[in-house]
Amino acid sequence: MNTLAIDIGGTGLKMVVLDSAGVPVSTATRADTPQPATPDALLAALERMAADHRDFDRISCGFPGVVTEGHTRNAPNLGAGWADFALAGALGTRFGKPARVANDADVQGFGAIEGRGVELTVTLGTGVGSGLFTDGRLVPNLELGHAPFRDGASFEQLLGKPALDKRGRDAWHGALFEALAIWHALFNPRLLHLGGGHAQIIERPLPPRTRVVDNSAGLIGGVALWRNPEG
Questions:
Q1: Per residue in 22-40, pLDDT tens?
Q2: Structural contact between residues 15 and 50, judged by C-beta atoms closer than 8 angstroms
Q3: Cα separation of 109 and 191, whole Å?
Q4: How far apart are the C-alpha atoms of 144 and 154, rounded to whole Å?
Q5: What's the pLDDT score for residue 80?
Q6: Which burial class, exposed, middle or buried, applies to 231 when counting CB atoms under 10 A from its CB (0-12, 13-18, 19+)?
Q7: φ, ψ of residue 17 in degrees (nearest 5)
Q8: Strand 58-63 and strand 85-86: pairing?
Q9: Residue 187 burial (CB count, 10 A)
Q10: Looking at the predicted structure, is the pLDDT value of residue 229 above 60?
Q11: pLDDT score for 228
C-alpha cells in the first residue's frame, strides 16, 4: 500500500510516494507555495506536482494549522479561505484516492519520535508548529507557537521567519534557547525534536534531550496517519 505524502509549508510544498514501511519509492519533489495560497491555488499546485508521482493508493498531508477530522480550522501562514475547509475531502476528490490530513508538526513528529515516554516536536520555519506525544500517541491540537512568550509576543512572533529576517540570527538564537528552556520545564520531554527549515541553521550546542531531525520526517511521518486514529 503506497502513500502519496504531502508536506504543505508557508513557503514550500514537498511531495513523495512512500511504501507501507515509510521508504520512499519516488524522488521527492519541491515547489514554491503559491501566493496567495488559496485552497484552489494550492490544490492546483499539488495536482501539477503529482504528475511526477505515480502508483499510490492513498494520500497523507501535513498542513500548517489546526486540523480536525480532515477540516482545516486556520492557516496563519497561508492566508484566507482555510476556515473550516474540508481539505481531506478536496484531496480525495482531486486525486480519486482516500486522504488524511493532520497538522504538519504532528506529521513530522510521527516521522521523528521513538515512541517512548513524552516527546515534543517543534518545527521552525515560516511559523512555529508543535506536536506532543506520549508513548507514541499524539496529543491533538497543541498550538504552542501562538502561546505567549515574551513582552506580549508569542513564540511564533519571535521565532518565525519574519522575526529571523527582521531581528537577525543572534537575536533569533537567543529567543530560541530561552524558548527551549521553557518547553523543557513545561513538558519535561524525554526528547525534544526540532524540525523545519530553520532548525538546520542552529549554530549553538543544543541542551540535553534536544535534537535536530531531518526535514524528510515531515514526509515520512505521513504513513503513520494511516496507522493512528488521530490522523
A1: 999 999 999 999 999 999 9
A2: yes
A3: 11
A4: 9
A5: 87
A6: buried
A7: -100, 130
A8: unpaired
A9: 17
A10: no
A11: 57
